[in-house]
Amino acid sequence: MSEQSVTSSAEAQKPIGYIVGGGLKANLQARLTVPAQKVQEGAFVVVESGNWLFYGLVTDMQLGSTDPRFADEQTETRLPPELAKLLHGQTLFTNLEVMAALMMEQGPDMDEDPEAYQAWFQKVMEEEIRPEPVKTVPQHHSEVRLAGAGDIAEIFGKEGKKGYFRIGDTIEGGHPVCVDLDKLVQRSSGIFGATGTGKSFLTRVILAGLIKRDKTAVLIFDMHNEYGPDDTASDTGMRVPGLKGKFPSKVRMVGLGRGATIRGKTPDYTLEIAESDIMPEDILMLTQELNLRETTPATLNALFNQYGRDWFHKFKNMRPHAVQEDEEGNKVPADDSIEAWANEANIHQLAAIGLHSKLNRLFNCEYIVENPAGDAVNQMINNLDNGQHIVLSFGNHEKDLDYLFVSNLLTRRIRDVWEYRTNNFRSGHQGATEPRPLVIAVEEAHKLLNREMASQTTFSTIAREMRKYYVTLLIIDQRPSQIYDEVMSQLGTRITGWLGDSDDIQSVLTGLAGREALRGMLAHLQPKEEVLMLGWGVPMPIVVHSRRYDDAFWEELLEKKARRSNRDILRDIGF
Amino acid sequence: MSEIEIGRLLRSGTTGFVVGCKVNQLNAPGFGAMVRVPLEAQYQVYGVIYDIHIEDDGLVRQLITAQDVPEEVLKDNRENRNVPVEIGVLVLGYEQEGRIFHLLPPRPPLSLDAIFLCSPSEVAHFTGQGRFGYFRHMLRDRDKPVEELLAAHLYQARAAQVDAGNEAWYQKAVGELITLMRDDYQGLIKTLSAVSEI
């Protein structure tokens, strides 16, 4: 904690109310002493009680009266305005419901006991005293005030401190709210919000922050070609800068398939999938998309057992219904026919023919080749190792099949590499270095992490492992309710815009304390403007006015540190 | 200090007393006006007039029923009555050694003690002390016309406070009344209706 934030915390701020009831299980109740319109749901408030500060969120506001008749009768029509105002001020009131989340010991008065204050301040600087979960309640009539910039910095970190990245501002006061990027990537995270609520912009902001921070490699599966190249906003028609344009040397754009172009531009290199890289589980993951039958696992297993990593190539070149004449002139299945292989492998012919027919969609994919021109996957891994970041653009291959197949296969391969390196590093192999943390950003995550597929994809494994192998996910989705509960519960940080569907709201709040209180806040977020941050990666839930993704954002982010004058330096050290 | 004597004490108690006065003294006091009873050096009791009562007597009864009574006889009997006008006063507090207390006095005034009308500065001084503790006494006895008494008192006290430069007094006083009466919806609405008339 900086001295400035300590000072800011101590700044006298006008109270907005006082505590009148509540408890640890139920939220705190505060009587509002300012007009209700000065406070909004989601406001970050501070309760000062003795030597303790309690930090909480306004989760509800209720109108009350000392007697219901004062509320029922429109006394302003019977009494002069002056009297009516006095009467209403005393008999009609608004109560705030405050969900207290953190508390922190406040130091003694600097003027009354300078020595004790210094001792306390030392502890704060050494982080012996820091905000902790609420374990007690403030006293009756403790003053409640809106949090100031110092309070926000106290809890969420100060902009400019290493790793702390401003994600937006508080609704009241517009004080900067930061996330600790280094903590954010320690567990998988999710960005949610209904269509058109600004998810993609927020994702760009966070990805830009991660790339600028440069402690973590980022791999983005860019299904709709919107993160890498410059784009045009669908609603405003404004030009939206892409990550490649802003970080030309740090971001590598990879196109899917030979000759791929992304919005008319040639990518840094292209990715082709070698047929030998495709494993049976990659096909099984497409069961729903390809409408595969129950016999598919057995057929794939037989193919893999017989041909090993060549199975896909061999099966692709088998001819269905091909016949040849035997020595006696009878028509029998040709040697290269599916039927002949099925007979040999003891697989039902129709099952094999059916699978072949359904795999035609993959056989016809131009980015799946027998011998790729280069080892793009290794190149991607090298890039990620060397401090660069990858945006894999799907170009014209925007079908669900392409997205599911490529993203899963690629993730499996990359994770295997990271797992291998991690094991080497942890077992102390000579020359083994700690793997660079990797964040994989996945759009339309529910297609990969729904209940049916979650057990089969590498993504769910990564989500469950948390940071074990230095790989985490950044899930971006508009239908969190479609994502498997077990995966949702593993997400560390959740940043969510407005959600209309009650199931989606329920899902985002899975596994969190104070769900009922947060539910209303989530439903009342202003689309495109406000997001709710909650979960492991933030000290407490908070609603923020999300940072705009515009020229000002880029100017602030890419601003080179100005040389400080000698006068500034001297002033900082007290001269 | 006001020297307008309005009468002398007929009977008294800790919570209130009755003053008797001549008819020609009746021009000065009014309903809701504040009065004081100096008892000894550095000690006087303050009150508010809640009732002004005129009893009949035998002569008045005869004159009302008599025919063709000359005007001068009527005037003589109105002004030179044997029975005094009775003024009911509710005790609001006392002053002792220069300090105002909004509490009931330790000792009530005695018979024939002189009662004086409070001047505006005395009203402002008494009502401006403390936090309107004397409202308790006005609200205690619901048999009295409390709403009207409060309205009359606020009217007179506000004028005195404005003269003394305390414009905010009235709002604070009404606010305090609302606080004291907010659990009594009917009483509060009646009081505010009466106050709104002033």
Offer a quick outline of the entry.
The complex is a heterodimer of chains A (575) and B (198). Chain A is α/β, with parallel strands linked by helices and 575 residues long.
How does this model look, in words?
The complex is a heterodimer of chains A (575) and B (198). Chain A contains 23 helices and 25 strands. In chain A, the strands form five sheets. Chain A has a twelve-stranded mixed β-sheet. In chain A, strands 1-2-5-4-3-7 form a six-stranded antiparallel barrel. In chain A, strands 12-13 form a two-stranded antiparallel sheet. In chain A, a hairpin with a 2-residue loop joins strand 3 and strand 4. Chain A starts with a helix and ends with a helix. Chain B has 198 residues and is α+β, with helices and mostly antiparallel strands. Chain B has one domain (5-195). Chain B has seven helices and seven strands, in the order ββββααβββααααα. Chain B has a six-stranded antiparallel beta barrel. The relative contact order of chain B is 0.18. The mean pLDDT of chain B is 91. Chains A and B meet through helix 3 of A and helix 6 and helix 7 of B.
- Please trace the helix and strand order of chain B, writing H or E for each element: EEEEHHEEEHHHHH
Overall average pLDDT of chain A? 86
Any idea what the radius of gyration of chain B is?
18 Å
By CATH reckoning, the class of the largest domain in chain A would read Alpha Beta
CATH topology of the largest domain in chain A: Rossmann fold
Query: Pair with the most extensive interface?
Result: A-B, 15 and 14 residues
The percent of residues in helical segments of chain A reads: 25-40%
Sheet with the most strands of chain A?
12 strands, mixed
Number of domains of chain B: 1
The total count of helices of chain A amounts to 23
Overall 3D shape of chain A? elongated
